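hey m, so remember when u said the tokens were messed up on ur end? i reran from scratch. heres the input so u can diff it against urs
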Amino acid sequence: MRPQRAISNSSLAFIDVMSCGLGAVILLFVILDFNSLPSEEVVPDSIEVLDQSEINGSLRQIQTQLQADITEQSNTVKSLTSSITQAMLEKTKNTIKRNQMLAISEVPEKYQRPRPQTSSGQLVGMAVKGSKILIAFDTSASMADEKLINIIMGISDKSGNRLAAGKKWAQAKRTLIWTIKNAPKDSQIQVISYSERVRPMTSGWVSRDTALKNMQTKLVGKKPDGGTSLGKMLEYVTNKSPGASDIYLITDGLPTISGDKRSSLASLKSCYSLSSNKNTFVSGECREQLFYSAVKRFQKTSAASVNTILLALEGDPKAAPLYWKWSAITGGVLFSPRADWPLI
């Protein structure tokens, strides 16, 4: 029988310790999650604290810069607006001018308006010439003033003094004297006045000096009055004063009354009833028809050159082109002077 060994107390203690350590390690692996790392709180080394004055200064700089930007943008907008406005004005002016030129080119005869010629001394493009010069002087009420309201107010004065005091009437009389003075010295001159009726201002054909003397008495106290009958004046020239080489017409617009012969007016029934004893309203269409009717009859027998001195009148836009056309056909000239012409 083998003899039993004695068990060492130290060996048992070491095994126990190792078992406990292993169990502790196993327990740590079970309890702890090694994939989860603890978060680190980043704490800045130092915190910069801004002074209040520095904040205010920065705000002021930002405000100043914004104001400068706004001002610059506002100036830019104003400049662009001004440029656009100017461009639109120029375009409008060019369009109006182009339309006017187009209108003239499309209707060259009936509505062409000649370029006014002005002079403070002598007529530009018009010379008073001819061996037998007939001057037809319009003495209708409209010759008193270029404004319609002033003419109407003057007509209301039954004495006629208000019309006689008109500035245009003074210009008309100066124009008549100027025309006679600038005629050739050896010319024969006849002067007639016309409104609703025709009145001779010279005794037939007279010399230039005699015509001037006659005007010194005939114009004194003469007052503008009544409507305008171009037809009666031309009928008088045809029947009682034929043979004129040149006619100088001093007037301010289209006729308002028909002549004794009213042919060509039947196409406009509203114009057919016009006569010297009816001072009613006359439309622009009727006035134009009265002009064409009178001139058409006159030109059938006349070979005279017709020159027109057209004074200003409000509300008669077709007068200039129609008188210009008539003058051009006969080889004459239309002249439209300014209010202070002639200076005599």
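this time it looks ok to me. DSSP finds ten helices and six strands in the chain. if urs says something different then somethings off w ur setup not the seq
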